[in-house]
Each structure stands twice: as C-alpha cells, then as structure tokens.
Give the backbone structure.
Amino acid sequence: MSDRGGKNPLRKKAEKILSKGTEPRQKISSLDSEKLIHELQVHQIELEMQNDELRLAQEEIEKSRRKYVNLYDFAPVGYFTLDKEAVIIEANLTGAGLLGVERTWLYKTPFSAFIMPECLSLFGKFWRNIFENPGRKSRELRLKRKAGDPLWVGLESMAVEAPNGNLIGIRVALMDITEQKRSEEALRESEKRLQDLSSQLLNIQELERKAIAIELHDRLLSDLAGLNLSLGGKISTLEETGHPLGPDLRKLLKIIQRMMQETRGMMNRLRPSILDELGVIPAIQGLCREFEELHPHIGVECKIEAKEDEIPDSIKVAIFRVAQQAMANSAQHGNGTSAKIFLRKSLDRIEFIVEDNGQGFNLENIKMGVGLQSMRERVQISGGEFQLESKKGQGTTIRATWSCSKQKSPISGAKIVVV
C-alpha cells in the first residue's frame, strides 16, 4: 500500500530503519535500476498471485466452516463433548434444542442436571463403563427439559483420548426416541390387553367345559345309568323265563354301557373331576393310565418329582391341558413306541416335560398347528416359557417352565429350539 497520506506505519518504520544505515549507499546504475525494477515487478506479480491463493484459501476455509456448521450445529442428532467429570464443554444447536435451553447456558453445566432421577444410577454405571472399557457404548435414558415434557433419548458415546493415550473426555450423540418409546409402550399395552382377553377366553372356555361335563354327568350319564340298571333287571327276568327278546336286549344293554363309557371319557377330556377334587398330579397320573388303555402299543412313563401343594393353583390347569394335548399329538402324529412325562420342582421353578421317541419333524419346515399354538398360549398366559424341541427321526420334546414367584407376569415369549 502507498503512503500518500503519510500515515502508513509500516512505511514509516521501514524508512526509519533505512535512515539508520551508516555505510554510504552506492549509486545505482541504469542497468542495475532496470534489473531492480524487473525484480520488483516480478516480486509484485508473485505477491499478487500469493494474495489470490490466500483469498481462494480463505474462501475454502469459509466453505468448510459453513459445511462444519451445517454438519455439526444443524445435524439431526445432538452432539455433546463432556469432560472427565461429565460436565458439558461443547454442544451443537440440535443438542441445546433437545434440552430446551440456550447453547451458551450449557457450557460447564453437569450433564446429570438433565437426567431424570430414576435414570441417574443407570447413567452412573454407563459413565464408569466408558472409562473402564473404552469403546463405543449405547444407553437409553430419560432426560428432563427446561420447558416441556421429558424425552427419551438414545445415547451413543465414545471416549476422547489425549495424544498420550489418556482419556480426557467423552463425545456423546443424542437421538430423540420419544415417539419410538411411546409406540413400544402402546404395543406393550396392546399385548397386555390381548393377554388379558386371551386369559379371559381361556377361563370362560374352562368354565364352559366344566359346565358341559357337569351336564353330561348329571343328565346324560345319570339317565344312561338309570336305563342301564332298569334294563339290566328286566333282561335278567326275560332271560330267566327264556323269552326270545332277552339276547337282543342284552346287545342293546351293551350299547348303553358303551355309551356310558364314552360319556365318561368325554367328561374327562372336557374337565376331569379329579383335577378339581384331588389336584393336577392325580389328574396327570389318571391321564397316563387312560392313555395306556387307549394306546397299548405306546409305553408311558410318568415321573412326578413335586408335591401337590408346591404347584401354584394358577398353573395347574395349564399343566394338565399341555399334558392332554401333547399326549394326543404323540398318539396321532408321533408314531413312536414310548412317551414320558416329567413334572418336577427345583428351587423356585416348576418344569413340565412331555417327550416321545416318534418320527419328529423339522421345525424350520413346519407351521404350528392349533394344538401346539394352544399349548404355547396357555403356558405364556399363565406366565411361563414354552419350548418345542424336535428333529426328524429323533422324537419331540415339549417343555414348559414357570417361575413360582412370577405366575402372572407379562408374556415372556415362546422359544423354538432345534436340537
């Protein structure tokens, strides 16, 4: 820049330095002047080129800065940098917006100030884990805002290392997952309502089964028993007198007796009275005896390692129905020669197992039928876990387990295990 106004401090400083020279300066020849002017012109052009490069570099820096602002400050997630004491030392605009405060207010504010009280212990464990096991860590937390309702966030963190390898802080990314949590809660409520409805339907079904069994006993079986007794006496009288209707009526009597037997079987399948009168263990033992009578080619082993009073009333019907359906499936589809039932109590768990040595099936290629679905639903609704294990040619195992302290917990899910 020229010094036409005489106010350029750099020029004044240069002139002052020049005036302090002690040696007389040699006169410059015209040839030297031309060279000097040429050098100065070249130098001027170089300076202009350097100035252009500096200007372009400044523009690139400005572009990078704007890009950084867009990527950092206006990112769809909140970014925070915390020191070793979990104090905020940097935050983007999105993060400040999530917390409902001005960004300048966040500086040197403990991050814990925004955590709901019920999540503070979780954050403490999470924070210690980051320093003990460096690496990316995830956590869901509920945060409070300066204004507005609390929000759920998914928190992703990574430790920040100094050049010497020491951890000096944490970088944190926050994503608002409040809507996701609301959807999950709505889904849980829906599942709970469905569970309650299924439980009510099963209870109604059991009541109807019991009512029908009582009706069969009090009406049909009672009438058949009266008819059997009356007709039996008359047949005996006719046979004594040699009446020709005696043999024909004897055949009719056998039909009535068979009807009585079938009615008793229907009653037991609907709701065995022994289940209500004596309990689930005698009911299962009776089921095994009946199964052996109906299927003499299948050997049945019934092993009970529990006492009646050790089994909660809330799962007794479920255990019996699983046994009933599993044995029926084994007889209809298993084509095996043996079936085993185990009922055991260990620590705080009840375990019920039905297994056979039948043909089995490949779980990956089969769709659950009504029987299997019914067993699974009964176990789940009563608060247990249902497992189906099978492999083609190696039989089938049905396993149901309940925690004695959690009989009415939400649906825990069914596991399908291939062994």
Q: What stands out?
A: The chain has three domains: 78-176, 178-271, 274-419. The domain at 274-419 is CATH 3.30.565.10 (Heat Shock Protein 90). The first helix runs from residue 9 to 19. The CA atoms of residues 367 and 373 lie 10 Å apart.
